[in-house]
Amino acid sequence: MLISPGLCGVCRHAKANTTKRGTIYLRCTRAGWDNRLVRYPRLPVLHCVGFEAGEPSPEDD
Question: Is residue 32 included in any domain, yes or no?
Answer without folding.
Answer: yes
